[in-house]
Amino acid sequence: MKFKVVLNIMGKLLIVLAGFLLTPLIVTWYYHEADYLAFLLPSLLALCVGLGLSVYTKGHDEISNREGFAIVAMIWVLFSAFGGLPYMISSPSLSFTDSFFETMSGFTTTGSSVMQNIQSHTKGILLWRSITQWIGGMGIIVLSLAILPILGIGGMQLFKAEVPGPTSDKLTPKVKDTAKILWEAYTFLTFLQATLLFFAGMNPYDAICHSLTTLSSGGFSPNNASVAHYETSAIHFIISLFMIFAGVNFANHYQFSKRNFHALFNDIELRAYLGVIFGVCAFLCLNLMLTGQYTDLFICFRDVIFTTASMVTTTGFATADFETWPLFSQFLIFCLMFTGGCAGSTGGGVKIVRLIIFLKFAYQQVYQLIHPKAILQLKMNQQVVKTPVILGVMGFLVLYVFSFFTGTLIMSATGLDFTSAVTATASCLGNIGPGLALVGPTDNFSQISDFGKWVLSFLMLLGRLELFTVVILFTPAFWRD
Amino acid sequence: MKFKVVLNIMGKLLIVLAGFLLTPLIVTWYYHEADYLAFLLPSLLALCVGLGLSVYTKGHDEISNREGFAIVAMIWVLFSAFGGLPYMISSPSLSFTDSFFETMSGFTTTGSSVMQNIQSHTKGILLWRSITQWIGGMGIIVLSLAILPILGIGGMQLFKAEVPGPTSDKLTPKVKDTAKILWEAYTFLTFLQATLLFFAGMNPYDAICHSLTTLSSGGFSPNNASVAHYETSAIHFIISLFMIFAGVNFANHYQFSKRNFHALFNDIELRAYLGVIFGVCAFLCLNLMLTGQYTDLFICFRDVIFTTASMVTTTGFATADFETWPLFSQFLIFCLMFTGGCAGSTGGGVKIVRLIIFLKFAYQQVYQLIHPKAILQLKMNQQVVKTPVILGVMGFLVLYVFSFFTGTLIMSATGLDFTSAVTATASCLGNIGPGLALVGPTDNFSQISDFGKWVLSFLMLLGRLELFTVVILFTPAFWRD
Fold this sequence. Notes:
The first copy, chain A, is mostly helical and 481 residues long. Chain A has helices at residues 3-20, 25-30, 37-56, 65-83, 85-90, 96-107, 123-151, 171-199, 204-215, 233-246, 250-257, 261-265, 268-290, 297-312, 327-339, 352-370, 387-413, 418-429, 450-464, 468-471, 476-479, and strands at 379-380, 383-384.
């Protein structure tokens, strides 16, 4: 492990964070808020540490996969430690654990919160909360479409060729070119949504905050009641639409901008993703109307499409308290916690593309029993998926199941009841936000013990970095030279 | 599909069932019970249908894998339909659905019951209930060690070579020889346990009933309070010990009888199985003593080893109401619902050997990321596990996860709460018996709707036949010639 080059890159990224930490000051100044030190001090600290690190470790070293893994995992932890300082300074009631949890929830675009009475915090703080998610979403798009495929993580190699850019195997040039294209799409969509929300009647501050956390599939809202704060149906529909956009592979957005509709229409993951949303909406509407939970089909549809989009894309915004819905609907929503959006989106969870591979693979295994001598190939979008990729996807499933059980076991040891432990784990591992029972859509994570918050923070990181990137750091083989 | 040969074998097996249906009559006669027709009539019916089928379809046809699958799956359904008739005749309050559920629960050695006030039924009926489990256990040992490996199901090929017998690929001769060896061990252990229980103070009838359902990992008891009915600690420990025996691969029992201790000691699955039991017991004792749930360590250990053995082997006997235990203990027990015993035992669940492969495989995937060019082999007991076997095991995991989610979704649609739906599905799919909440160890399945009972019956069959055997029947490819 070349620690020097790892520290060097971390230093440079800290300097970038120092810049981001200043952005909420515009709001602090505009609204005459007093907590400007909450941003200035952490920014200064990040700048000093960042400069120190990058100067002290100057030099040119190629980075290999090993350093890539270390940087990816550690940057999320480092950013969460520094990014949490504003919360601690602005509201002394928040401990370091709370601040770290809140920021990890931000940078992993999870959206679980330990803040009670959100509207009591300053506008600067709440904007920073939204910005952490936006940065996290930006990071994850590049990670999943440019870095993880090169590192060979859990089947993400599927996307190696989908985004143009130099095909050299060296990390840096490809990442830079790909990142630029993707960030343009990401930024454009954020602006577009903010504009639409403004015209639908939201004030500019709220419109920006919600757009930052919609495109990142994050789900932080500056209102106590989340999106339920607004009664205008147009706002609900705009956010639903952009949540669905955020759950789409950003390579698809690129194809759309290049008017490559043919590739778009033939993408099996995109079609399955829209199919899942449509199917779940239909079941939910049916269940809710038949049980008399809703009497107005329009309102029912509005809440259902919002909830479905929010859960499948792992955003976590809430307009309806789905804990009052029939049990079938609740469990369907629980299932969505595992589904996740498309790979290469800002959504978390298992991802639609992996679910397709699971199903195709299982069918193939059954088919093989009937025709033991047949030589079968698994295809996605007319291309053969190679065995190492399939094995990577299966390894992901095994790790996901084990992480889920181990996580729930530890959370139940902190005293949570069955439903809360199961759904808090599923929600954090899938980077969603709310769960059921104690951590339901109208509650938050403040009642969880400090130890539990650290466990959940770890689960968020684990899920966000596609498991492997984090697990690898715990193997002796990784640290041996 | 050669329907003729399928029907022929089913006919022959029905004649065997007709014989088994007469065995409870000894008890009926001894205790002067009036419901002898409950056994005579179904036996006569099974005999007539069986004879009719086997005479009508006479002829000699080789059976292939395809017929093998059809026979295995259908025989469990057919046996449950005929084997349920005694319940209907003896107690008119039980519907066909109830009787089918109870018998499927018997033949799959699940042990979930819809009977309320069990002791109100005749001794003949309760013996028949135990016998169904014993037959089911016998069937499953042969199935998992002799038939499924040949059919190539979900990694069961691992055991192809472990039990001696002609290695011809034709189904019949190998099955007969293997079956004889295994049944001897099975019958011997049943007798041994009954004798020990008798000397520990159980009456002969109870001793036989409990032995029949211990060795089969079934868990039906002729007492309302299950094994908690007895206060003698020796009885608890004897049953614990034989439950642990029942969860061991019967190939290991064969090795033991041949004094092949070397192979026994080096068997990684056996060691992991005992390790899991020991580890879980330690955690449970610690949790229960520290929280003050128990004050007497001896009683605590007795209940813990019993509950652990009962759950890990998927037997389902109860001595302690673990729903009153701390939440950590409850969730640990929930995890055991998925573990299951060793492959080739009468236990259900995922099976220890598959869990070992999952873990080894996941570690290998992580290791591969660090050394992308390394060529890795997965070994079990010093032998390389071939890729098709690994793929089979992964296919099993995918199907298990999908079955679990689909099952729970459907069960939640019948109106069950979250915990009940989740644990009823896990319990039936894993062939355990009790779950938590509505279907906890002191409750039963009678409150579940008829539709729900059919779904759970299907899940029991699915889990018992290692998923593939049942799923395959639902593919069009299976029925195409």
